[in-house]
Specification:
single chain; about 260 residues; alpha/beta; Rossmann fold; six-stranded parallel sheet; 12 helices; 6 strands; elongated
């Protein structure tokens, strides 16, 4: 292995970051679970499902339009965050006996969603309701996301959901679905880390989880201790990074070449 001048600091900082995250994950498992701040969008989910129960209308959920392989595989983490939130949502729909529609753009998501629904309804003591109160609709993506968007818009026209929850990676279909949900009078909660879709969700939805909040939401609803610890560790790394940036800015303005110090 050869150390390349100018990249050693980056490698050292990366290793320190891994160590910090690992320590916080270990602490979460063996000592105490870090407290994650409340998120309005996450807290609004029970309200939206309660509204669906009161009106006798269904809930629509989608974990986004990215697969686990191919060109969209880089966004799989967002999809997993969306599936974690689906566990929470499906337990609430099972508890309040609300019909749940889950729309998917990739067939590889179907087994996971089926497993989540079975576990959630079994947890609430109503395993038989999976067949009668839930529907998984698969609108496959071919050369564009238009078929999926069209399928969801048609579903909205037919069932008129009282709640539309969208957590995961999205493309142009984000605005189309959110706008149709608004027209149907649904309470809408959305979240994505796709920065170019966040403005559309903010405009069209009642609540929006922005960027990394979807990963925190997935960790909060799952109460996965290592995942909660990793989020706390990442926050510490971010604080260190910000302090380095501020310190570098001050030192550079004082005439001290801070960047040359780090070039080793």
């Amino acid at each position: 292995m050869q150390l390349i001048a100018g990249r050693i600091f980056g490698a050292v900082f990366l290793l320190i970051s891994f160590l910090i995250i690992y320590l916080y994950m270990t602490k979460a498992v063996k000592v105490s679970v870090p407290k994650i701040r409340t998120m309005a969008g996450l807290e609004a989910i029970p309200e939206s499902i309660g509204r669906a129960a009161e009106t006798g209308r269904p809930v629509h959920y989608t974990p986004g339009t990215a697969g686990f392989s191919g060109a969209t595989a880089g966004f799989a983490a967002q999809t997993f965050a969306g599936l974690s939130v689906l566990t929470y949502v499906s337990r609430l729909t099972a508890k309040y006996k609300v019909p749940l529609y889950v729309t998917l753009a990739y067939g590889e998501h179907i087994p996971l969603v089926e497993s989540i629904l079975r576990e959630s309804y079994t947890f609430e003591g109503r395993p038989e309701a999976v067949a009668t109160e839930t529907k998984i609709l698969y609108f496959p993506i071919a050369t564009s996301n238009a078929p999926y968007a069209s399928g969801v818009l048609g579903l909205f026209e037919r069932v008129k959901p009282a709640s539309n929850i969208m957590i995961g990676p999205f493309y142009f279909e984000a605005l189309a679905i959110a706008e149709q949900g608004f027209i149907e009078g649904a309470m809408q909660i959305a979240g994505t880390a796709m920065t170019y879709q966040i403005p559309f969700f903010v405009v069209a939805c009642d609540y929006t989880l922005i960027g990394e909040e979807i990963f925190a939401a997935g960790a909060v609803v799952s109460q996965d201790k290592p995942l909660l610890g990793s989020i706390a560790g990442q926050d510490i790394v971010k604080i260190i990074t910000i302090l380095l940036l501020i310190g570098g800015f001050i030192l550079q303005n004082l005439g001290i070449d801070f960047l040359s110090i780090l070039k080793f």
